[in-house]
Amino acid sequence: MAGRRILCVGLTCLDVISVVETFPEEDSDTRCISQRWQRGGNASNSSTVLVQLHESCTLLSTLAPGHLARYLQADAERCGVQLIPVWVQGDCPSSVVISSLHTGSRTIVHSGKLSEVSAKDFESIDLLEYKWVHLEARAGEEQACMLRKVDLWNKERPPDKAVSTSVELEKPHKLDTYQLLGLADVVFISKDFAKHLGHSCPQDAMQGLKRGLKSRASLVCPWAEFGAWALDPDGQLIHSPAFPPPCLVDTLGAGDTFIAGVIHILSSGGSLQEAITFGCKLAGRKCGTEGYEGLA
Ligand code: ADP
């Protein structure tokens, strides 16, 4: 598999992150400890981390022309992520993030919205270059077509040329993305998504969702400071504890970092147990540092 790339499809946005000692009271006037601009978005964050893990990584994202897009493109280049923009009209998404040093919490307010990468945009991708396609679930119908295309492509190729797929289901209000559960080789379910479906713990979510998976697929569920759980293709439940940093600094993107770690190990032939353990270690390290620099 050496030499083949990982493709991430999803949002790229600007995060303006203000780090504060403690979360401010409403209608108060607070000076932050530091403020930074960061390229954000789930798939975009995972790409940044994958590159640090020495993976060649491409990010397919919609962008609207303008100064924000120029910043996002320059930042991707600086980080070594190959950003393929799909140009659309609108405002590039941005988020204001308040990151509290006291608790490590991150409070996010989103703005801006662009249309999503479509199945037609995905046709420009030469799957021969890739070993893995990861989708941040945002546009169910379109992304279902992408996953079916990869499946068909795999059927016509020898196993060593196959492209593995993963999807992260994070936003429970996007009902059309639920169909993606049954279409990818590895499905990541966020804690919020599981809770929204009425599952109070990850084990319960695994039991409830396993019937919807495609054959031989894995289900992975990170659960913040409790670590992560997964169901392997044989239906075995496995767990990794979390690896808390000496001091909790910044939990923004912990889940995206975890996903990057899991994909890195699985795409290099490691086991699911090795993958979630590595993902938890990497995400724990991320929680102890600002941003994504110096994780590997
Ligand atoms: P998200 O960032 O999407 O909300 P989670 O909060 O579930 O994702 O965290 C993803 C992973 O990050 C967890 O599985 C865990 O390994 C790690 N993690 C998150 N919060 C902590 C924490 N407080 N201490 C140690 N590890 C953490």
3D architecture notes:
The chain is an alpha/beta fold. 30% of the residues lie in helices and 26% in strands. The protein contains eight helices and 13 strands. Strand 11 (218-222) and strand 12 (228-231) form a beta hairpin. Helix 1 crosses helix 7 (254-267) and helix 7 (254-267) packs antiparallel against helix 8 (272-287). The mean pLDDT is 95.
List the helices and strands and how they pair.
Blueprint: E1 5-9, E2 13-20, E3 34-40, H1 42-52, E4 57-63, H2 67-79, E5 82-87, E6 94-100, E7 106-111, H3 119-122, E8 130-136, H4 140-155, E9 164-169, E10 186-189, H5 191-196, H6 202-209, E11 218-222, E12 228-231, E13 237-240, H7 254-267, H8 272-287
Parallel strand pairs: 1-4, 1-8, 2-6, 4-5, 8-9, 9-10, 10-11
Antiparallel strand pairs: 2-3, 6-7, 11-12, 12-13
Average pLDDT across residues? 95
| SSE arrangement, N to C | EEEHEHEEEHEHEEHHEEEHH
Radius of gyration: 18 Å
The termini sit apart by 21 Å
Shape call: globular
Query: Helicity level, as a percent range?
Result: 25-40%
Number of H- or I-type helical stretches: 8
Low-confidence runs: none
Number of strands: 13
The portion of residues forming beta strands comes to: 25-35%
For the report, how would you describe the main beta sheet?
9 strands, mixed
* Strand numbers in spatial order across the main sheet: 5-4-1-8-9-10-11-12-13
Oligomer: single chain
Hetero ligands: adenosine-5'-diphosphate
Structural class: alpha/beta
